[in-house]
Design brief:
- The chain is mainly alpha-helical.
- Helices cover about 70% and strands about 0% of the residues.
- α4 (about 50-60) crosses α7 (about 110-130).
- The longest helix is centred in the last third of the chain and has 20 residues, at about 110-130.
- The relative contact order is 0.20.
């Protein structure tokens, strides 16, 4: 159940209300210090693979087309494969769709999977981050 902003530490809440920082996950990830604080938080929750996958997809999207196939294979092996060392939580349909296009990946190959993981982080991890000590680190850096 969503507890809203009333459960945030007061300093985090003030920053959110002032609109100066941490309005949403996108704002947090756009700042190096915010990204580092969120990564530390996810590491403490043993869910850093979600952020690492999202970042790998961002890198893949802007990679030159001549290396996309290699990068796509690396992303699949690292995050998507059922035996992946940093397997992310994706539904079977999304996994199968990715597997079917791995021979000829395009710039948008991982878009759907990346969006699913981003949504998971935004709805699940980010609200917990706002209530954590890691949030304070991010605010100090903003």
């Amino acid at each position: 159940m969503c507890k809203g902003l009333s459960y945030l530490p007061s300093s985090c809440l003030e920053k959110v209300q002032d609109g100066k920082a941490l309005q949403d996950l996108e704002s947090l990830l756009s700042k190096r210090s915010g990204l580092q604080a969120f990564r530390g938080f996810l590491r403490s929750e043993f869910s850093e693979e979600n952020l690492e996958f999202w970042l790998a997809c961002e890198d893949y999207r802007v990679a030159p087309s001549n290396i996309q196939k290699t990068k796509a294979g690396s992303i699949y092996t690292q995050f998507i494969d059922p035996d992946a060392p940093q397997e992310v939580n994706l539904d079977a349909e999304t996994r199968e769709a990715l597997l079917s296009v791995m021979e000829s990946p395009s710039a948008d190959t991982f878009n759907k999977a990346q969006q699913r993981i981003y949504t998971l982080m935004a709805k699940d991890s980010f609200p917990r981050f706002l209530r954590s000590s890691h949030c304070m680190e991010a605010i100090k850096a903003f």
